[in-house]
Amino acid sequence: MSFYDKKFTLGVLGGGQLGRMLIQDAISINLRVSVLDPDENAPCKEIAHEFVQGDFKDYDTVMNFGRDKDLITIEIEHVSIEALKDLKEMGVKVYPQPEVLEVIQDKGLQKQFYTDNDIPTAPYKLIDGRDEITRNSDFLPCMQKMRKGGYDGKGVTPVRSLEDLSTAFDAPSVMEKMVDFEKEISVIVARNPKGQVRAYPVVELEFNPKANLVEFLFCPAQISNDIEARAEQIAIDVANAFQVVGLLAVEMFLTKEGEILVNEVAPRPHNSGHQSIEGNYTSQFAQHLRAILDLPLGDTGIIRPTVMLNLLGEENHTGAADYTGLEDVMAMDGVYLHLYGKSDTKSYRKMGHVTVMREDAKEAHRIAENVKTRLKVRSK
Amino acid sequence: MSFYDKKFTLGVLGGGQLGRMLIQDAISINLRVSVLDPDENAPCKEIAHEFVQGDFKDYDTVMNFGRDKDLITIEIEHVSIEALKDLKEMGVKVYPQPEVLEVIQDKGLQKQFYTDNDIPTAPYKLIDGRDEITRNSDFLPCMQKMRKGGYDGKGVTPVRSLEDLSTAFDAPSVMEKMVDFEKEISVIVARNPKGQVRAYPVVELEFNPKANLVEFLFCPAQISNDIEARAEQIAIDVANAFQVVGLLAVEMFLTKEGEILVNEVAPRPHNSGHQSIEGNYTSQFAQHLRAILDLPLGDTGIIRPTVMLNLLGEENHTGAADYTGLEDVMAMDGVYLHLYGKSDTKSYRKMGHVTVMREDAKEAHRIAENVKTRLKVRSK
Q1: Cis amide prior to A98 (ω within 30 degrees)
Q2: Measured between beta carbons, which residues in chain B are less than 8 angstroms from residue A301?
Q3: pLDDT above 90 (res B212)
Q4: Across the interface, do B303 and A303 touch by the CB < 8 Å criterion?
Q5: A176-209 tens-digit pLDDT
Q6: Residue A161 near chain B (CB below 8 Å)
Q7: How many CA atoms are closer than 13 Å to the CA of B64, on its beta-carbon side?
Q8: Which helix (H) or strand (E) holds B277?
């Protein structure tokens, strides 16, 4: 059965903004999408062809959701791997593969995977709880990352010295040597079941230090051709090591010495690829669909320089969302608004993003800074 | 209430491909869309926030559909004008305005409007039926256009001499002097309630002679700067004469003598703007939403040269649609597929379109010709 057939259905675990943007591209190829999410107000709720309310971490829920689907994918990693494994056993196609998700879901296994596959990454130690930080104080300063359940800047905290112990997690985690990086960069790689691989050009990320979330993205990254080529090759190596099908977003540190270290990966569309909707020949969402449907991968080339700005809920604003400055921003040429359909805002919640595309990268940057000043999400 | 509010709903009369692509852009601005269409398998059926099955030509159906909407628009002209007028009277915003639709819906009134407003158009006569063609034989060769109900190449027929009388329509129609044109061109103009107007660059259309439907579109058009400027000005003049809110697609003939004549207009997103999804800074669908929501209009500039190809059902194929060559076409770089979600094909039915975007316009044309050879829609 072909993907454009009315009876063919793609099941997506997770109904947030990534699923929403995936559906926007699925419409263009007649692909029917069914979404599973616990939130009855999930961003995909009203636009999915079918929406099922339920917990994607629950074995039975995922089994029931998945058994009649032709293909399953995810837009969040924290799902029932056991159910996905059993669905795969039953003959349902599951991309990314549950075995890949299993490694990535656990930041300890993920680090071990890099070591085993000669992928450059920062030195680390695996610990079971807070007391082990004291015993490994020679390893400080470090970033402590919970092995499981972290998401969107949560589950990660700096431990610069033992004085930070009170804010450290008392849970199985990775202690990762703090990297004195020059830039954070990312490469999104697509790989289909035939093994065809295409990488997007490197983008540069600027984080909001308070929220530990991407705030600005610059495409192309301001780096040398040599670094561009090395970063792309490392990202392709990681995708091939996993033999992943679908997208793999590879976040990397570029150190002051010019070393490139893999920070972490996500086997799905990713915040570091949102600029591709307008700025690259193939959007990451269309590319993810091509990859999991075993179609030829699209051109990843840059059409025009872009700057992407995440639209984060203002600090200390919780409740029904109100946007100020929308009209100001829409009056600026080459500015693309993407709202995620979340009715409630909270501090630093990702409520949308804005992409600025101009022929001149510096002008795009200036406009994006201007957008940041004007556009605010507050509670009513 | 703001357009992004969950309680704000845009009602769209018509649920075909234009509505479908409008919804794809509405998602990006959190705009809730409710669609009215008589076909239970309409392209918008499964992706609209709400779908109401019913006849948009029926007064009561449109009244019931429209009374709780915040804003009404159309994606087809042949709707109940009376209902739209009464809804407007009741305080529902209706764009394009019913008065504009009323003129455009009737090709006779439309021609009269051009004459009254000094808009250049081909000479014409209004007739009530076939016998009047005989009486006006000195006006041949002409195109006979039914005053009402024509759509997608239907309701239009050439009457070169009285020998063509048997295929002429016996209905109120316009006899329009046949124009010996060099090119058919189109300009889409957007106008918002504040009176802001922005025109898209001129595109060039190539028709399939058998189906009288657009087959290829070239953006930018291969015309002189002088013709570009004149065509744009005429299109803006027409939009201002109508004081239309929303898009107005103005199709024009460029004669061999360099004269520009308005052929006909459509107050909505139009086939001659499909390339704008990828090829212009603002897609025509996003622009239509901006215009009817009284938001600032977006940049209409060209990002890259594009060629659009309509994907028409193969002649004499009727029934469940099957696509051949999809993978071949998806393997070509810079090629964008848009399938309209129609399960059944028939001769020359618009089943989708393909846009080719390359830096080099000639290369885009070559690729589009290649796509036409490979990609076919047949019945199973």
Answers
A1: no
A2: 333
A3: no
A4: yes
A5: 999 999 999 999 999 999 999 999 999 999 998 8
A6: no
A7: 11
A8: helix B276-279
Tokens of A51: 């929406």
Q: How far apart are CA B134 and CA B162, in angstroms?
A: 7
Residues whose CB falls within 8 Å of the CB of residue B178, separated by 6 or more in sequence, listed in order: B141, B142, B143, B158, B160
User: B160: which 2 tokens?
Assistant: 């070169």
Q: B208 falls in which pLDDT band (50, 70, 90)?
A: confident
Strands, sheet with A156-159, edge to edge from the N-terminal-most edge strand: A124-127, A173-177, A142-146, A156-159
Asked if B32's CB is within 8 angstroms of A47's CB, the reply is no
| Mean pLDDT (whole number) for B190-199 | 98
The answer to whether B327 contacts A32, with C-beta atoms less than 8 Å apart, is no
Q: Which of B150, B143, B103 is nearest to B125 (CA)?
A: B143
Q: Closest partner residue to B281 among A295, A330, A333, by Cβ? A: A333
Mean pLDDT, all residues of chain A: 96
Token pair, residue B177, equals 């002097």
Q: Please give, rounded to a whole number of angstroms, the shortest distance from the CA of A183 to a CA of chain B.
A: 30
Span A6-27, pLDDT tens digits: 899 999 999 999 999 999 999 9
Whether the predicted pLDDT of A333 surpasses 90: yes
CA–CA gap between residue B310 and residue B354 (Å, rounded)? 6
**H-helix or E-strand containing A357?**
strand A350-357
